[in-house]
Amino acid sequence: MKTLEKGMYLLPDDQFEFELKKHPLTKQEIQGENKSLMTIVTPEILENSQFMQKLNREKTHTLIRSEVYFDKFYTPEEFDKRNAEDVAKVIQGILRKLGAKKADYKFVKSNEAKDFSEAKRDINAKASYKVVEGEAQYASSEKQSTEASNKEEIKKTITFEGIASSKEELNEYIKEKNIDIENLDGWLQELIESHGDKNRTKHYKGEKYTLSYNKDTAEKITQISVNIKISPIFKASLGAKFSHSSAEESTYHEEIIFDIEFG
Questions:
Q1: Cβ within 8 Å of residue 211, ≥6 positions away
Q2: Which residues, at least 6 apart from 263, have a Cβ–Cβ distance to it below 8 Å?
Q3: What does residue 12 show for φ and ψ, rounded to 5 degrees?
Q4: I need a labelling partner for 12 at 20 to 30 A (CA). Which of 75, 86, 206, 225 fits?
Q5: Rounded to an integer, what distance in angstroms lies between the CA atom of residue 139 and that of residue 145?
Q6: At what angle do helices 167-176 and 76-98 cross, to 10 degrees?
Q7: What's the pLDDT at 87?
Q8: How does the average pLDDT of the chain come out, rounded?
Q9: How many CB atoms lie within 10 A of CB 125?
Q10: Rounded CA gap, 113 and 159, in Å?
Q11: How far apart are CA 218 and CA 223, in angstroms?
């Protein structure tokens, strides 16, 4: 399988592929400028992906690559939860290989309910905002909306044997699991690089793994789904949550916060 960068991908069926050839503007709207929103791909590119084996090739699919796995792809509706779980799982595996004894962590999820007053607004408009006690007021010449937000936290604890693997074993683990190490947060990459250093810090408290990919993806899907000119076939591939013409909700995992103890 060809290695794909993290991002959104469209796998069109024969009917939609024919439609894209007839209407180049639709293709541009879907992909965005310089493919900033998503990339249109062929089945051959994903032929060995575990996800491809489950797909109905008679339908158009929108797929989003995992932030940390080269070979995992998700639908827009399941992406946010599954990607956050992927990140937590990869960090757990790496901490185990590094010799950690215990890790407390919590998922922080942001819920933003939006009510757009302009159906024909410019979705690329830049909005200014001011946060006041859990509520953000957006205003611009192109659109007006109000946004109420709150946070959800899910806490978990995991214990390890506290026995570190060798650097070679760690590298083999990363390769075997198809982990995209380049996308890991800086503090985690520093931990990996310092593997074997006896002077390494024993306790890490409040280390934040920012899930900016989750937020960026949620915003891209919303941006695409509110464009009423886009083909119904494509909208259906986004799933029921995003297929209507006015996106009312944007919910995503914001960050994972770790407290880590080494032996």
A1: 67, 83, 84, 87, 252, 253, 254, 255, 256
A2: 99, 100, 101, 162, 202
A3: -80, 150
A4: 86
A5: 7
A6: 160
A7: 96
A8: 78
A9: 12
A10: 36
A11: 9
Q: Are strands 100-116 and 73-74 parallel, antiparallel or unpaired?
A: unpaired
CA distance 97 to 229: 50
Distance in angstroms (rounded) separating the CA atoms of residues 51 and 180: 17
Tell me the pairing of strands 249-262 and 203-210. Answer: antiparallel
Average pLDDT rounded to a whole number, residues 126-155: 43
Q: Please, what's the b/e burial string for 50-87 (b: 16 or more CB within 10 A of its CB; e: otherwise)? A: ebbeebeeeebbbbbbbbbbbbbbbbbbebbbbbbebb
* Residue corresponding to tokens 């158009």: 60
Place of tokens 């590119």: 45
DSSP letters of 194-255? TTT-TTS-SEEEEEEEE-HHHHHHHHHHHHHHT-TTS-HHHHHHH-TTT-SSS--EEEEEEE
Q: What does each C-alpha distance from 168 to 28, 92, 198 come to in angstroms?
A: 45, 18, 17
Tokens of 83: 């990607």
**Distance from the Cα of residue 145 to its chain's centroid:** 25
Gap between the Cα atoms of 256 and 258, Å rounded = 7
178 phi-psi bin (left φ>0, alpha ψ -120 to 50, beta other):
left
**Main-chain dihedrals φ then ψ at residue 132, nearest 5 degrees:** -135, 105
End-to-end CA distance of the chain: 39
